Automatic annotation (TrEMBL):
SMART domains: PKS_ER. Residues 10-309 form the Enoyl reductase (ER) domain. It comes from Alkalicoccobacillus plakortidis. It comes from the Bacteria. Keywords: Oxidoreductase. One of its GO terms (molecular function) is oxidoreductase activity. This is NADPH:quinone reductase. Pfam families: ADH_N, ADH_zinc_N_2. SUPFAM superfamilies: GroES-like (SSF50129), NAD(P)-binding Rossmann-fold domains (SSF51735).
Amino acid sequence: MRAVAIKQYGGIEQLKEIELERPTIESGQVLVRLEATSVNPIDWKLREGYLRQMLDWSFPIVLGWDAAGVIEEVGANVTEWKVGDRVFARPETTRHGTYAEFVAVDAHLLSFIPDNMTSVEAAAVPLAGLTAWQALFTHGNVAEGERVLIHAGAGGVGHLAIQLAKHAGAYVYTTASKKNHELVKQLGADEVIDYKTESFENRLSELDLVFDTVGGDVQSNSYKVLKKETGRLVTIVGIQDEKEAAAYDVKAYGVWLEPDGEQLKRLAALVEESQLKVVIHASYPFSEKGIKDAHSLSETGHVSGKIVITF
């Protein structure tokens, strides 16, 4: 099968199209023929070698952790799924990723793709959607009526987080550049702050939850706008200073995504009910050039929604 992999860490020039054996599935797994995958910032961060201590893998490494396609083969002890089912998943984090024509996925991590959802849209959801879900609900415990700030609301994770927080009944603030204000309002943001012209910490206070997808000064300043004692900060970029949260008398949680098929099914149900919309910024064909172009775009940090690769 065709795959795009890296054989050493570095820039986009390390992404090379190669031939690999089609994965052999084990008991409890299915083989998915991919129709689409997506590119996330973790992909190029891993490609650059930033995660080598956490993910100490041998080469070649096939990147990618979003799968959408059709089940080609079903392993032993799989009863819920059959050949031909349309599915999507965030597979386990291994060096055998989804920049490939086929991927083996543990059956318990799969969700159905709703009839009103394309494979392109499905590929955009697993990693970003589960990240948003776990940040808001597993760690953030967001509740109806709470006031929530979501940083970078037009981004791949942010645009889904806005919708999930609104669905939970929260009042949602978000930061976005002027060109994305209309988009985030359409997604449900109650108030938008232009981070280029206004400091959110000067405008907001007494918030229940901040979802940090940016880090740096944004994280440090986020502590200032939370309620003492009950305020929570959830971040996907790591907690920079454990003492900061204590100094402001708030809680801080770092999120490392856990693949979860049941949560993905709940996201699929929201799409099926037209409660969750997926924004696609750009789509590229599966090829060495296509994935290189997608990485280059992702690295700019100016993406509204998700970047998808189609097979």
